[in-house]
Amino acid sequence: MFSIVAQANEWRAIDPSNAVLLTLPHGKVVIELAPQFSPNHVKQFTELARSGHYNNAKFYRVIDGFVAQGGPKDGSAVDKAVPLLAFEGEFSTDKNFEFTQVQTNDMFVEQTGFKDGFALGYDSKEQKAWMLHCPGVIAMARQTGADTATSHFYITIGQATRYLDRLMTVFGRVVYGMDNVQTIKRTAVIDGDIAVEENDYTSIISMQLMSDVPVKERINIEVAKTDTDDYRKKLHDRRIRENAFFFKKPPPVLDICQTPVQSRIVK
Amino acid sequence: MFSIVAQANEWRAIDPSNAVLLTLPHGKVVIELAPQFSPNHVKQFTELARSGHYNNAKFYRVIDGFVAQGGPKDGSAVDKAVPLLAFEGEFSTDKNFEFTQVQTNDMFVEQTGFKDGFALGYDSKEQKAWMLHCPGVIAMARQTGADTATSHFYITIGQATRYLDRLMTVFGRVVYGMDNVQTIKRTAVIDGDIAVEENDYTSIISMQLMSDVPVKERINIEVAKTDTDDYRKKLHDRRIRENAFFFKKPPPVLDICQTPVQSRIVK
């Protein structure tokens, strides 16, 4: 009743050279990368994945409602060998910047909207845009400095951490298997609870570029196009909530992070 | 770095007669009930839990990023025997209504804030308040009519479904074991994926009032008080983000559903 389902002609196939297959002990996850917004982060992440950098790494910082963070052992040779990345948590636009606007009174930003299925913030005065920290995005962790990311990454698993927008570089989003991300073992417990053993941390079996995966083992994903009249109408309908289930109408606003962009598997 | 940790004298013990222990095959969950806001829903839910109504029921509608919904088999004798509940998704306040205000420019409501650790919306003109659909709340499902809830409930497991505020009756929130809620088997898959068998749906082993649980098996939870100067200072600090990690400061606003209220276990 609440979903936005795209019609047959309203889908975009994800290029397998622009997607990553994350294999966990309990299931698979597909992440679509966003080189159009964070080119150097995608390039480094892709090269690292292809080199086997993430294979057998662990999710060592997993906080329910916040993030699942993984990477190689801190200070290990493989960890220290990775070059620093310059911040790409926002990008400049021109006056003709176009996206499918969702909202203009978001609490954090002048405008929100979708471009290529990714949730963006946009400030028309600054002429800047950035990927938003909605649930299920992948971003690089970093030290205190803006330009200190290397290979450690996190996937957001709770309410959107919008206060991290423009402070961390988001570079993709989960398009399949978010349930498997949610099943990653939490490493943090509340006071008084039994601590989690490091041996129980969830391992990354492999992180592969989808185009490197044998064709028969690929998960081929299509995502709903977000720049069509059809999708705009769905946004409108979701905003208006004409269904009788809404016995009074909610405020006619959309939280972009609660506005789905559908995926499907194609053979 | 991002958490709000209450001091030793800033905790409130949850009354075991006001908490529910949900035992799942893979772990335990504690829910604090909110009779101060939704008295009849809490009363019916509590009586049903004590009667064993939910034992062996299944989570039959579990949609990633949305809700995990459970209850007895539709149309079964035990299902049909439950009386209808009148809507309690908002309540009237007087002019002296007090809560710990969090934000005044939330997209959905004039004011947000905490009362007794629960996230509320408040409209001073209408003099109405209501529990918000933040992640980890429990609410009653219903049919189309406002007053059609019975015993089927859902727990929110994704980005806050704020468009359901004032439309559904929230009556508590998870204060322990949200990771176990997130591990409930999803029943919905995307097009092209393998359907989930009903046999694989997650069962409720038991739903017990905590005061009915043998003392040795109880999980005794304290939650941070949200009406103290200490907590207000923590809200302030979280809004201002003085830590150097924030190399530029995010907008000084707080999404109440991304503002934690800590729990801890006491023996």
TrEMBL record, chains A, B:
GO molecular function: isomerase activity
Enzyme class: isomerase
Enzyme Commission designation: 5.2.1.8
InterPro entries for this protein: Cyclophilin-like_dom_sf, Cyclophilin-type_PPIase_dom, Cyclophilin_A-like
One matching Pfam family: Pro_isomerase
Protein name as catalogued: peptidylprolyl isomerase
Lineage: superkingdom: Bacteria
Domain PPIase cyclophilin-type: 25-225
Annotated keywords: Isomerase, Rotamase
Phylogenetic classification of the source organism: Bacteria, Pseudomonadati, Pseudomonadota, Gammaproteobacteria, Alteromonadales
